[in-house]
Amino acid sequence: MSKTIFFIFALLFSLSALAEKRLHYLKQIPVLHEGRIKPFDTYARVNLKEYLHKDSLPGMSASLWLFEVLFDQREAYNRKIFKINNPDVQKILNLKPAKGHTYNFIEVFSALGKVEEQINPLLSLEPEELTPEQKQLTTLFNNVYKYLNLSRSFSMFLPELEITHNELAQLLALPTGQKLSYFEINQSKWRLRNYLKNSNMQDQELLREASKIIQFFKFMEEDKFANFFKIIPSREIPEGESFSDNPWFAAWDMDFSKPADVLSLTRWHDLYRSYKGKDSTFMGASESILNHALKVSDGALSARKLWWEVQYNQFKLFNFAFVLYLIGFLVSMGFVITEKKALRIISIILVATGAFAHLINLSIRCYLLSRPPVSNLYESIIFVALIGVLFSLAMEKFRFQYSTVIGSLLGCILLMVSFGYEKDGDNLGMLVAVLDTNFWLAVHVITISIGYGCALVTSAMAHLFLYQKAFKNSLGDQQFKKQIHYCSLFSLFFVIIGTMLGGIWADQSWGRFWGWDPKENGALLICLWLLWAVHGKLAGVLKDTSYMVLISLTSVIVILAWFGVNLLSVGLHSYGFTENIAFNILVFVMAEILIIGFLLLKLMTKNRLQSY
After folding, report:
1. What mean pLDDT, rounded, does the chain reach?
2. Helices (H), 221-316
3. CA distances for 209 relative to 197, 212, 215, angstroms
4. Is 189 part of any domain?
5. Which residue of 10, 63, 378, 543 has the fewest C-beta atoms within 10 A of its own C-beta?
């Protein structure tokens, strides 16, 4: 089995290595973005997601798309990559409905230009002061500006000006009869300056040509605003500072009078020319840029991490795990219906393989960030999903025959939810200082997330118990009851320990163990709920049905504590805030209440509900 899994992953690696081989080194070139040095490929995906809400185009990777934006504006400006779903926004911009609700840069830029006076006052307002349409307009406006900024990052390389005066061309040591770029002409700028300084200004035609060059310089230097694409690292690192703490530079930040800066730009110019010429030097040029950045970093940059991050982006093992969980759920449901043992074995293999892919991708993420996956809601969801699946598979040891049904369903649902937060959470961003330096935070969040995952599995088991009792004329298997009770205790243990560790973190970070923060109250609520259920069961106050109802409702308590407190937008746990989840939470809570209420009603009509 292990050899088969290894072969599958090896095959995936080999197939991906053949695809877009020409971009192999380009994808790894480091870029400074949002406080973290990330490969070109990640930077491209993050930007494309902002515009299109996807990290690739049909038949085109994000890296190739970004390279086109940087070096081939004629194609890039006509490519439809701005998604505008809201018909009201389309109406405001006077845009006709388009296939896929996508528009190209020229269409959107022109439309925004006509309503710019309406948008400018909105840019200074807080998000909560804006209507949904206004939020989307301001976001679109900022995205178009960023896109324009990116597209002009290397405008200095674009061949725009032809020198027709032979004497001036000889003076500047430049060719005639072909268009030259700002970068190429600028290297002879000192020759022109010396000539104009020492010339008697007799040749009017030459002076007119020289004046044209000066005007060209002024025109091109207006692109110095294009400073988003930070790709040239600082060479001098002050003692005591890290490599990433020092400023990185965009191409237009370079001093053209310094040979070292010109050499850095020359490497990118060579890459541009090889791309335009479609010759075999493209990989060599991109490799040269990558090696230069690694050399300048003096070991601060890891070539291995850059490579692994590109693979992480490419394989999308969370998607692969989701597919396996989904198939595993369908097969496990086939086992429940037919009770064929072969289907149960296949479902276990599918879910276990999905969990392996899930674990591998999460481990790669931890390796890349050098920290546990606890920084934001997206990471929390994918981690809890893995815990839930692994905990369900562990129940196989106790002969719980529905373990794959619960594990695969939980994995599917949570990964599906995580995809909704992927745009903001999957960019491998840096943590704020208080979250990135405290050992107790990592231990606290990991521990309580394990409690979340186990509690959700336990809740699903209790749902299944109520279903069996209501529809299968069964009072419930005693072994099944014990399993649910032990799982409740296991969940309670991790939630309590995780909450206490959170207090230790709060004491070290903020100087108080407990402050009645919404997130703290949420964790306490889970503890109290499970304590109430468990103590009621042990004291004999709660009978089986009542106990199972409380355990079933644990899923509601966990969701409210995990997601719901973020709706308050207050407290110190700002790393977990998100938007637009109130409706989803309401739907989930109402669905759970209706499902459990229906099962109770079914039990009551069959006179099987015991006294409390």
Report:
1. 83
2. 259-277, 282-297, 303-315
3. 16, 5, 10
4. yes
5. 10
